[in-house]
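Q: Could you fold this chain for me?
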Amino acid sequence: MNDYEFRKILDHFSYSWSGYRKVRKGVKKRLTHHMVQLDCGTVDGYLDLMARSLPLRHEFYRIMSVPISRFFRDKAMWQMLVQDILPCLLSEKEVRVWFTGCASGEEVYTFQICWDTFKGQHKGVPELRAVASDLNPYYIRRALDGIYTETSLKEMPYDFMASCFLGIRGRKYAVKESLKKRILWVVHDNLKGPLVRGCHILFIRNSLLTYYREEIKVPILENILEGVVPDGYVIIGGHERIPDSITGLRSGVCHPCVYQKI
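A: Sure. Below is the predicted structure, expressed as structure tokens.
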């Protein structure tokens, strides 16, 4: 598959060339393999198949996903979360957190570890309601399984390994059941609006803002921001930005990746 054919697929689904440019080699390889499996010799024929089959589209979305994530990615952000953001929520009866585009769940479980750390440092911590969503059922199943390789754990603080994971065969590690109890995993399309209402923290990192074009990500972002409470926090990826047309967010709160709803 050449770049012209790849860009035709990106344009059809309103994906961003700039978001995929550096990772396109692997994505093009997966797309080509999928086309061979389907005995499909042209991009036009492939797009026609995607339009006619929901299961094939789910497989396509999995192929297009680039879930470059690991536990405690961007350590400074997680330290800031525990030190600066969570203390501001101590007066709430319940803290609602939504992870949209959660992929395989590394970020969600990282938050759970941080929350438990925070609970050990403070009295009267509110109840937690954590909801994690992704458009692709494949990633939700992986996150529910909670099994990860050493690569996903290379930034994990050593002190948390024994308390949060069980070693299994093949140098893989399983998240302990105690970390899974407070998470609701949901397959959700953000075009349908916010999954969580009254959300205090929205994680939207390394997904929508990176891989979609403005005409798609702006209306989706406007939709999901409706679920965030005033003064609620919106946390994005380190190399991402909120589109200029999005209003009602205050930037530079605690950390360059953190915005607060006005």
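A (continued): The radius of gyration is 19 Å.
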